[in-house]
Amino acid sequence: MNRRPLPCFLVVAAVVLAPRVALAQDLAPPPPIDPNTPSAPSAAPTSGLTPGAEQQNQTLTQEEGQDSGRGNEIFYVNGEAGGSYINMKQFSESQLAIVNSAAGGPMFGLGAGIRLLVFTLGVRARLHQLSNFNLWQLDGEFGFHIPIKMWDPYINLHGGYDFVGTLDSSALDPSTSGSSGNVSVHGFNAGLSLGADYYVTPLVSIGLDLTGDALFLQRPPVPLPQNIGVLPSAQQTQIRNDPLYANSGDSVGFGLSGSLHLGVHL
User: Fold this and answer.
1) Closest CA relative to residue 73, chosen from 128, 147, 142, 10
2) Taken in order 129, 130, 132, 135, is the CA torsion positive or negative?
3) Are the C-beta atoms of residues 98 and 88 closer than 8 Å to each other?
4) How many CB atoms are located within 10 Å of the residue 65 CB?
5) Domains identified in the chain, total number
6) pLDDT value of position 65
7) With 80 as the cut, is the pLDDT of residue 119 above it?
């Protein structure tokens, strides 16, 4: 008996469908879920940090919270009181004609300015109430601060104008001491301050400041006494030739001061 060949499309269909039928037979349905079987505990989310690192992270967070307790400062004002030593001609002198040019005594000051993050820009006035003379300083200052919790160490650069308010007669030569009220000494200074503030509250601080200054001073000629015409000629000649009356003078000196201060911060 002769067999008739299968049509070609039946052969192709058998080849294509055979793997799928076998795969369907291999796949078994999942077992039924028993509601009485306890499920496995879900894994707790982890932060990816070891216990030591996580504790350190919590410590840093607490410190940041303590640092932020001071708030943002924009304006400050502080008053200071302390002591100072001034030598008007320590490094050089040219006819300054001041005998006792070095003295020590109390110092008082007042400063104010603005603050931007760690930088400050302000002005300061200081009075050096010394034994032989009084020296005033009117300065501008620029500061850099390093906040450490409630401490605030800083370094200030400053410079400005100096002038002698009063000059005691003992600071001049005895022969010309009667002209002490007419002697004018002025100039400028440049210096450096180191200090630290402690914030008792976010608005109030107490601190310590140490300052060194270079002083560049000048003395214009003193006007001749009004009664010079009635004096003997020898005395007139002596006065006219005195460096205090005949010439201007200049000098380079230094100043050192230390103070305690109280500040208000807004």
Assistant:
1) 147
2) negative
3) yes
4) 9
5) 1
6) 43
7) yes
